[in-house]
Amino acid sequence: MNDGKSKSSKPRHHEVALRLDSLKQFFNSMDPSPFYEKDLDPDAEHYIVSLAEEFPLAESVSLVLHLDAPDTTETSAIIEEAVHNHFRNLARLSRLEFRHMMRVGSRSLVIGLAVLTSCLLLSELIAKQDGALMEILRQSLLIGGWVAMWQPMQTYLYGWWPLRRRRLIYEKLRRMPVHLRPVHHPDSAHPASNR
């Protein structure tokens, strides 16, 4: 399994190439759906997505399946539809996951602010009391209040953008062209070279 990168024109185009003995390798054998609705094999999906993640989002990508069987227009269309359906579904699930994360983040923010406010108010009351124990309690309240803000800060500062990028990658893959090509002989050019 290899990929190549275009070096001539802009925008650049990339090919993700897979060598298969049979199309059965490309699909999840446990999925009972009709052929054009089948899920991809997890290893094939991971390989395609991991390579697509290396390319800038603005650059196009196509999938090339090298098979022993000769290419037919009808088979290519069915495989392309199956690939598009698979990544369309992943994009939909990724959108749902993003919305769920934002809802949880909103609830966490409300809870975190309430806890932080309470801790700050209590620490101000305790600050009027003398003694090492009171100081320890005051500092503990301050620390606890800011720790309560960790979850919403994590969500809104760092948690959302990997999900968004993943969804954009799925959106790109659900539109990528899919080509079936005969297997190259060992003495021919490498099947994963770019155009």
Tell me the layout of helices and strands.
Blueprint: E1 2-5, E2 13-19, H1 42-52, E3 60-67, H2 73-127, H3 132-147, H4 150-173, E4 178-182
Parallel strand pairs: 2-3, 3-4
Antiparallel strand pairs: 1-2
Helix pairs in contact: 2-3, 2-4
Strand content: 5-15%
The percent of residues in helical segments reads 40-55%
Run of helices and strands: EEHEHHHE
Number of helical runs? Answer: 4
Number of extended strands: 4
Describe the sheet with the most strands.
Answer: 4 strands, mixed
Overall mean pLDDT stands at 83
Strand order of the largest sheet: 1-2-3-4
N-C termini distance:
17 Å
Radius of gyration: 26 Å
Structural class: alpha/beta
Summarize the structure.
By secondary structure, the protein is an alpha/beta fold.
What descriptive keywords fit this protein?
four-stranded mixed beta sheet; rod-shaped; disordered N terminus; 195 residues; 4 helices; alpha/beta; disordered C terminus
Describe the structure.
This protein is α/β, with parallel strands linked by helices. It has one domain. It has 4 helices and 4 strands, in the order E-E-H-E-H-H-H-E. The chain has helices spanning 42-52, 73-127, 132-147, 150-173, and strands spanning 2-5, 13-19, 60-67, 178-182.
